[in-house]
Amino acid sequence: MKLKNICVFCSASKKVDPHYFDLAYAFGKLLAEEGIGLVYGGADIGMMGSVADGCIDHGGHTHGVTTEYLNQYEGKHDRLHTIEVATDMHTRKKVMFENSDAVVVLPGGFGTLDETLEILTWKQIGLHEKPLIVVDYKGYWAPLQKLIESIVTHKFATELDGQLIRFVPDINDVIPLMRSLPRIKINPTTKWL
Predict the structure, then answer these.
(1) What are the pLDDT digits (tens) for 114-148?
(2) What is the DSSP string of 120-161?
């Protein structure tokens, strides 16, 4: 699969352990080295700022999407190639999604979880076929993986639904997996049968 831009969801917190910033920076660098643009939430703080810095510092292209509300608290990254200001949070997610070929999830909090589950839900009901990959760095997202397995086991989602989101332990696994993943087309007419 051709990857022009990847959307990255991750934390804007300044309080997390510095190794999370290093992870984000390394992933931004990886995107730049692979010739893949970064689409993300536009902030200059936390892991969000680090992933943008990693991409920019190594010659990659960056596209940020924020809202006026968030800009009061997170601030716009001043080195981005392009930045959009969406009217609200839902529109922000939609714009990030529409400008990317795939989604990667790094560690984050409630906002990152919200973004991830919305993209997964859109995929589950057949709105898109874009890859969704979670980097389970040091087991951070293991509880989410277990929850998804439980949802499938108890038949609140199908086995196929469980394959719509993939987990990898390392950022170096992301691009090879994306390029090898088959497209899973969900037929929404059979979902509720």
Answers:
(1) 999 999 999 999 899 999 999 999 999 999 999 99
(2) HHHHHTTS----EEEE-GGGTTHHHHHHHHHHHHTTSS-HHH
Which structural domain range is residue 43 located in? 5-180
Number of domains in the chain: 1
The SS3 call for residue 2 is coil
Distance between CA atoms of residues 9 and 32, nearest Å: 17
- For residue 85, list its beta bridge partners: 66
Tell me, what amino acid is at 44?
Answer: D
Q: Does any domain span residue 187? A: no
**This prediction's pTM:** 0.94
Residue 186 lies in a domain: no
